[in-house]
Design goal:
Elements (H helix, E strand, L loop, with lengths): L7 H54 L12 E6 L10 E7 L5 E5 L12 E6 L2 E9 L5 E2 L14 E8 L4 E7 L3
Antiparallel strand pairs: 1-2, 2-3, 3-4, 5-6, 5-7, 7-8
Length: 178
């Protein structure tokens, strides 16, 4: 009785097919892992953008009817404490720093001494542009606030435009309570 087995050619063909399947699976797995990393990075980027806008909105809504200072590319104002008692009244400023990050400056109180340095924290990295405009009492958007001595302490609204380093442009308008 003759034993029947695989020939060398059949065995080599099977190994070749298995090798091709392994290579295709490896490439497919690599593509899935790359896509997962890209989705994670995008999710983190948009989560940090949403957190920045939420913080900015909360600060602006708590703004005090005290003089607002708007230097080029910077917004500085006083903020009351929140009803929940989480925040304390203090002077706040937002600006784009030299590393293309939006940072917040927090002074220890509303009327800190002029030379008291604020604590600075990055609230949004990778920002190409940061622009502010202010809605005056005649409903006209202006680039600086206050423009004259007769302007009220707070504008009616602040329009914030940021361009992320990845190219997305975002514009939000925040009403101020006076």
């Amino acid at each position: 009785m003759r034993q029947r087995g695989f020939t060398l050619i059949e065995l080599m063909s099977a190994l070749l097919i298995l090798s091709l399947l392994a290579v295709m699976s490896f490439r497919g797995l690599g593509a899935v892992l790359d896509a997962r990393d890209q989705v994670r990075q995008e999710t983190e980027k948009w989560r940090s953008v949403a957190a920045f806008f939420a913080r900015f909105q909360r600060d602006v809504q708590l703004s005090a009817p005290r003089p607002l200072r708007a230097a080029s590319g910077r917004l500085e104002f006083s903020r009351f404490a929140s009803a929940e008692g989480i925040d304390m009244p203090r002077r706040v400023a937002y600006r784009l720093n030299e590393n293309h990050e939006i940072e917040i400056a927090l002074w220890p109180g509303l009327d800190a001494t002029p030379h008291a340095p604020p604590a600075r924290y990055v609230v949004l990295p990778a920002v190409a542009q940061f622009e502010l405009q202010y809605l005056d009492s005649e409903l006209v958007w202006v680039d600086a606030w206050p423009r004259t001595e007769r302007d009220p302490p707070l504008p009616r609204a602040v329009r914030l435009r940021i361009v992320l380093a990845s190219g997305e442009e975002l514009v939000r308008v925040f009403a101020l309570t006076s």
